[in-house]
């Protein structure tokens, strides 16, 4: 499997965690701290990521593979770069959703449709509903 595919959903997940309500981009990201960003795929599987205040993120792929990397804010977008497992040295950026509680429909880097949402707390399973 192409390792860059691990990067795609994780990046997209970060988008749902960032409300567009605050003027300060860092304040937008703060709502994700301590919570789980889910990227739900058409087959029902999901990828999870957890953003840390120090600019790091960790996660689990749809197959349960541990992921990690760094995140940053550029304008109204959040950008993630995966460092574990190693991939191409690229960042993927997406615009923040208007309402992270409801989530947004988006596409990952390969064009696969996903639904992004923020779930309260640090979960390592996909919640029902």
Please name the defining characteristics of this protein.
mainly beta; globular; 15% helix; 8-stranded antiparallel sheet; 129 residues; Lipocalin
Architecture per CATH nomenclature, i.e. the level-2 architecture:
Beta Barrel
Stated plainly, the CATH topology is called Lipocalin
Which outline best applies? globular
Q: Portion of residues in helices?
A: 10-25%
Q: Give the spatial strand order of the biggest sheet.
A: 6-5-4-3-2-1-8-7
Sheet having the most strands:
8 strands, antiparallel
Low-confidence stretches: 1-8, 10-22
Radius of gyration, taken over Cα atoms and rounded to an integer in Å: 13 Å
- Helix count? 2
| Distance separating the two termini | 30 Å
Which CATH class? Mainly Beta
Count of spatially separate domains: 1
Order of helices and strands: HHEEEEEEEE
The total beta strand count reads 8
Mean pLDDT comes to 78
What proportion strand? Answer: 35-45%
Structural class by helix and strand composition: mainly beta
């Amino acid at each position: 499997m192409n390792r860059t595919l691990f990067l795609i959903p994780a990046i997209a997940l970060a988008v749902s965690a960032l409300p567009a309500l605050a003027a300060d981009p860092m304040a937008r990201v703060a709502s994700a701290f301590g919570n789980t960003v889910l990227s739900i795929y058409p087959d029902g599987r999901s990828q999870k990521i957890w953003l840390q205040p120090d600019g790091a993120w960790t996660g689990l792929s749809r197959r349960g593979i541990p992921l990690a990397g760094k995140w940053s804010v550029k304008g109204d977008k959040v950008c993630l770069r995966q460092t574990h497992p190693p991939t191409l040295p690229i960042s993927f950026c997406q615009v923040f959703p208007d309402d992270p509680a409801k989530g947004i429909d988006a596409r990952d880097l390969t064009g696969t449709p996903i639904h992004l949402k923020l779930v309260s707390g640090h979960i390592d399973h996909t919640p029902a509903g």
